[in-house]
Amino acid sequence: MDVDELKKLLSEIKTDVKARIGELASLEKLRQLESQIVGKKGRLGELLGSIGKFPKEARGSVGQVLNSAKKEVAELFQTRRTALQASESAADSKAGVTADPTLPGLPRNVGSVHPVTAVQWEVEEIFERLGFTIETGPEMESDYYNFEALNIPAWHPARDMQDTFWLENGMLLRTHTSPVQIRAMEKFGPPLRCIVPGRCFRYETIDASHENTFHQCEGLMIDKGISVANLIAVMKLLLREVFHRDVAIRLRPGYFPFVEPGFELDMSCMICNGDGCATCKKSGWIEILPCGMVHPNVLKCGGIDPHEYTGFAFGLGLTRLAMMKYGIRDIRIMNSGDLRGLVHPERLCGPLIGTRQC
Ligand code: PHE
């Protein structure tokens, strides 16, 4: 047989397959025909095995011809198989065959809110009970609200404390939720009680404890006669509610241009109960939030007379709080979309998330 005869034979086989394949009514019949044609003893199968019988110099082109025929025939069978599978399964489900009530059920992943959202809702609920309103502000801010009105003029070295994403339009991505202090003062005037949960951005290199996108919750209370005592009382209540137990706190001096005096508020470490462990670096205390009494210049910028009114402000790190509450050791998990943190918050463990026992 020469190559031309082979081609003719192959085309007869293809025509034959095409003619018969459409009439096949079941997958079983299709399998039978396939083995009759392509199987070792099938018409095409035998030809495929006969390449060695051709003269050496013809084997290259014979191989090509055979291979392309094999591919075409395989495609014909596959197309028909897909069609038959679809119609058989449709017929099965019509007859109710697919649902087997005795099979064990598939495990279902029940989703839940993101840990930051969970903590945010909790904090909102606590402050709503205290008569605080929940405010929001723009994530794209002006220099004025983010810095200037917060007593951080352009020349102030404190600007270096918050590496900023500047935008081409001269605006910036807010580095904290504090700009909403001014916006709230302008909008409502005194007396004033509000919290401002929201996203903030800093030009940070990301590692286990730094993110360029994170959540804060600003707090602001302004009235006649507000003092540090009010600040301490509210902070103690907040921590007791969040951690479901009384938490010892202490205030250390801290510098933020928009508060005077300014503090870093520490809480006793809830992992070692203040005895000292790796998480609190053996000190027994964990830095939990910066706060202070609103600076008179800031009150003035917000249109409030600092001789008549005083107030406190705090900046709760919601991302940080969520990490502490759920024992998440790596901040990168928060924006990663890793569903282990959402589907089973109680299973927040493993190398990426932390070493909490669960
Ligand atoms: N906005 C400050 C920060 O992000 C935190 C802060 C808020 C400090 C309110 C004092 C009072 O660093």
Detail the topology: elements first, then pairings.
Elements: H1 3-21, H2 27-38, H3 43-48, H4 59-94, H5 115-129, E1 133-134, E2 140-141, H6 143-146, E3 172-173, H7 179-188, E4 192-201, E5 213-223, H8 228-243, E6 249-253, E7 259-268, E8 285-294, H9 296-301, E9 310-317, H10 318-326, H11 340-343
Parallel strand pairs: 1-4
Antiparallel strand pairs: 2-3, 4-5, 5-9, 6-7, 7-8, 8-9
Helix pairs in contact: 1-4, 2-4, 5-10
This protein binds phenylalanine (PHE).
The site of phenylalanine has 11 residues, from strand 7, strand 8 and strand 9.
Description of the molecule:
This protein is an alpha+beta fold and 358 residues long. It folds into 2 domains: 93 residues, no CATH class; 233 residues, BirA Bifunctional Protein, domain 2 (2-Layer Sandwich), CATH 3.30.930. Helices cover 38% and strands 17% of the residues. The chain is built from 11 helices and 9 strands. The strands form 2 sheets. It has a 7-stranded mixed β-sheet. Strands 2-3 form a two-stranded antiparallel sheet. The longest helix has 36 residues. The termini are far apart. The C terminus is likely disordered. Bound molecules: phenylalanine (PHE).
